Amino acid sequence: MAASAVQSYEPIRWADLGLKNGIDIGSFRLRYYSLAYLAGIMLGYWHLSRMIRSPGAPLAQRHADDLFFYCTLGIILGGRLGYATFYTGGDTGIPSLWTRPSELLSLWHGGMSFHGGLIGVILAMAWVSWRGQLNFLRVADYIAVCVPFGMLFGRIANFINGELWGRVVASPVPWAMIFPDAPDQLPRHPSQLYEAGLEGLLMIVIMLSLYWLTRARFRPGLLVGVFTAGIGAARFTVEFFREPDAQLAEFARSTGLSMGQWLTIPLIALGIGLVVRAMLRPALGSAQRAAASSAVEG
Question: What pLDDT, on the 0 to 100 scale, is given for residue 115?
């Protein structure tokens, strides 16, 4: 019944959109996924440089430069090592990348793990904070505002590449698509665009609004807490529409949740904890403002 409902309308064919996974430069193809990483990192660096010019910034431009370098390494190395850890080996049906160290840096073979990249960025922030004697939580707040840029570009690149498609639609939707590499050629959710909207665009609006329109940056942990809970909730939601990785489909069926959802639950809990902690503590500078107000009244 569901299958006949799915076929009762004409879905969009991804192949008819005329998309290519890169730009051909002679015999070399510059892939959009690489450009997405580059665009996200560069835009994030530019915005961080603007943020630190506003009052109350916990770091200087030299620290932003260091973060740009080490966070880039963290994204690439963490993302790849996370993919090797969570998505290969064991019962996945894919030989563990840990047994083939020479392929760990072959980014054109295999994939990248969001959670691994997140861990890499956390380690990069910890290193720069320790070396520069900075408050780690406040540095994390500032980085969290910039991360959604990369999420937006990365998910759009996934769509342009025709990869990481969604599940087969259960009822007709006008934006359902047939992806050429999907095994059954049935209409599917373009879950890459759902992720771009929730993890990217929505989080950009939320984080920029909190930073530029409120005093959230003066409550250490609030911005990174909102980002962590928000990105976790967005990823958890989208996973209901995203096709589980082929090697982990059985894992998703047996546990009721995908690997991405299981890895996201701790993020949501951590984010909520950081928000509660930040709201229960006085904002930076509140004591000075209270003292100044008392002096004026006196």
Answer: 73
